[in-house]
Design a protein that fits this description.
The protein is an alpha/beta fold and about 625 residues long. About 35% of the residues lie in helices and about 20% in strands. The chain folds into three domains: about 250 residues, Glutamine Phosphoribosylpyrophosphate, subunit 1, domain 1; about 200 residues, Glucose-6-phosphate isomerase like protein, domain 1 (Rossmann fold, 3-Layer(aba) Sandwich), CATH 3.40.50; about 160 residues, Glucose-6-phosphate isomerase like protein, domain 1 (Rossmann fold, 3-Layer(aba) Sandwich). The longest helix is centred in the last third of the chain and has 22 residues. It is globular, with a radius of gyration of 26 Å.
Length: about 625
């Protein structure tokens, strides 16, 4: 959600900020703006709407100069999307500009205090309150000129203000009185420093700065950074000293480009064979008939002592967690409970002594999931993580974990990160199973089946044109059901979510057996049903469920196993899946559902990569 970019150096800041904001568009936003420092003045340009239609045009008609600036894409929390609520926001004096991700929970109490002191506000946002608060402290600190021991008064003012704040923030601040400095801070919302030569950056996401540098510092909670063109300093509000580690980005500017594809989502669907290969690389131990990981940070005896696993996740990751439950319980015989991360934090879920929490997050910054991880650790339990982004907060705060290595995912609707999560969960289930009672023969079957998945996905991608025709046939439908059983039930949920996210069609995912208990009342000739019916252990029962839909004249699109001729007699349209082991079908069945949703959304003229109201990384609870 929201995006931050900051630059200080010798180049003109405005083009760099605008380019960085464009690279952050995928995070979801409703307005954009920049603030630049030029000849002792803070110049603001901001506009509601998409960057090219709003801010870019404004900057062309009202250009701004300067070698230092901050920019922001806003996803509305406090105040409707509008020009006045767009970031950056100024303090009372107009000399300090702030951009901010997150939520200031006690903003109203702070605002009332400032109003009584004579302040006036131009927006409905919590961020403007924060800007005014920083301004108040800056005036105090600046008035102590010569008494600050050489410390930057803007940095001190930001620290003073944040000590009064309750909530989350990733922010960047500039001040007319500190012409060579940007101050950044984070708590619960990601912020990184990009290290250049004679120039430095602040950003909420590495995508914003990957074209300029690969050296970054990931800030931790309560870190406050003072950034100039030739150096950066970091302190921590809690400890005064901060641990700083320079990391190298694992992806390039080209990796974050759309290439020949019409949308990032389509590009990332086509990248899934490589994503699976990357998830498996170096982790398959054929000789030991197991999987191996380097980052779990648990001994064999500790792994064997696990009596229960709770998986916490949100959104698409929650669907992956359901597949993980099936995999781990079948292969490792460990009881698994799947929790919505946001519910786990706020109910008194009993956790026995040998319970491990496993969290799933593509971005590694999901606020709900991070809160679940911290709650488990607070209660003295080990917390493991599966994430995609190296250096993310969840990756750094977990006791151990596994990286997906899926590469940057720009499309808001997750595709390759989802199937990568499924691949990693499959490996983890084998790893845990081999420490218990999983026979080597069965483990090798699954490992070999996983290694075959990239080529199977490539064969599915050759059906793209056929899927496009089927999608156009149903593009005007306003309601869909997605049904599956066993391992494919969570994929039915994921298929429905994908269609909802990017096409805005109402869709529901259910267990096929659950339809007769109520939802079947909604079936008619205008309500298509996507049936996941591979030839697995549930095939006969799923076919019986399908017959109930057919009897009520509901159109049926079936995902079936190659060679299944019976399905043609009862389905209006058939999409064939390669033959696979039952635990592998969730990965394979996901791909045609992604393409189906993509082509329906494209046919309806939707903004596939940036669906309305959605954000890529949900960093507020």
């Amino acid at each position: 959600m929201c995006g931050i970019i900051g630059f200080v150096g010798k180049k003109s800041a405005a083009p760099i900020l605008l380019e960085g904001l464009r690279r952050l568009e995928y995070r979801g936003y409703d307005s954009a703006g920049v603030a630049l420092l030029d000849e002792g003045s803070v110049l603001i340009r901001k506009k509601k709407g998409k960057i090219d239609e709003g801010l870019a045009r404004l900057l062309k008609s009202e250009p701004v100069a300067g070698n230092l600036g901050i920019g922001h894409t806003r996803w509305a929390t406090h105040g409707v999307p509008s020009d006045k609520n767009s970031h950056p926001h100024l303090d009372q004096s107009g000399k300090i500009a702030v951009v901010h991700n997150g939520v200031i929970e006690n903003y109203d109490a702070l605002k009332q205090r400032l109003l009584k002191a004579g302040h006036t506000f131009k927006s409905d946002t919590d961020t403007e309150v924060l800007a005014h608060l920083i301004g108040v402290h800056y005036e105090k600190r600046h008035g102590q000129n010569g008494k600050n021991g050489g410390e930057n008064p803007l940095t001190q003012a930001v620290c003073d203000a944040l000590r009064e704040v309750i909530g989350t923030y990733g922010l960047a601040v500039i001040c007319a009185g500190q012409p060579g400095t940007i101050v950044g801070a984070r708590r619960g919302s990601p912020l990184i420093i990009g290290i250049g030569t004679g120039e430095n950056f602040l950003a909420s996401d590495a995508n914003a700065i990957v074209a300029h540098t690969k050296k970054v510092v990931y800030l931790s909670d309560y870190d406050v950074a003072t950034v100039t063109s030739d150096r950066f300093d970091v302190l921590n509000l809690g400890t005064d000293t901060a641990t700083v580690q320079i990391s190298n980005l694992e992806f390039s500017q080209e990796d974050a480009a759309r290439g020949r594809h019409a949308h990032f989502m389509l590009k990332e669907i086509y990248e899934q064979p490589r994503a699976i290969e990357n998830a498996l690389r170096g982790r398959v131990d054929a000789e030991g008939a197991t999987a191996k990981f380097g980052g779990l940070n648990m001994s064999v005896s500790e792994m064997r002592s696990i009596d229960r696993i709770v998986i916490a996740a949100s959104g698409t990751s929650w669907h992956a967690a359901l597949v993980g439950e099936y995999l781990i319980e079948e292969l490792a015989q460990i009881p698994v409970e799947v929790e919505f991360a946001h519910e786990f934090c706020y109910r008194n879920c009993p956790l026995e002594k040998n319970t491990v929490l496993l969290v799933l997050s593509q971005s590694g910054e999901t606020a709900d999931t991070l809160a679940a991880l911290r709650e488990a650790k607070r209660r003295g339990h080990r917390a493991l993580a599966i994430v995609n982004v190296v250096g993310s907060t969840i990756a750094r705060e977990s006791d151990g974990g596994i990286y997906m290595h899926a590469g940057p995912e720009i499309g808001v609707a997750s595709t390759k990160a989802f199937v990568s999560t499924l691949a990693v969960l499959s490996l983890l289930a084998v790893h845990l199973g081999r420490m218990r009672n999983l026979p080597a023969r069965r483990a090798l079957e699954i490992l070999h089946a996983l290694e075959a998945v990239p080529k199977q996905i490539e064969s599915l991608l050759t059906q793209n044109n056929s899927l496009k025709k089927i999608a156009k046939k149903y593009a005007k439908a306003e309601d869909f059901f997605f049904l599956g059983r066993g391992y494919t039930f969570p994929i039915a949920l994921e298929g429905a979510l994908k269609l909802k996210e990017i096409s805005y069609i109402h869709a529901e995912g259910y267990s096929a057996a659950e339809m007769k208990h109520g939802p079947i009342a909604l079936i008619d000739k205008n309500t298509p049903t996507v049936f996941l019916v591979p030839q697995d252990s549930m095939y006969d029962k799923t076919m019986a469920n399908l017959a109930m839909i057919r009897a009520r004249q509901g159109p049926i699109i079936a995902l079936a196993t190659e060679g299944d001729q019976a399905i043609k007699k009862v389905a209006n349209d058939v999409i064939y899946l390669p033959k696979a082991l039952e635990p592998i079908y969730p990965i394979i069945a996901t791909v045609p559902l992604q393409l189906f949703a993509y082509h329906i959304a494209a046919a309806r003229g939707c903004d596939v990569d940036k669906p309305r109201n959605l954000a890529k990384s949900v960093t507020v609870e």
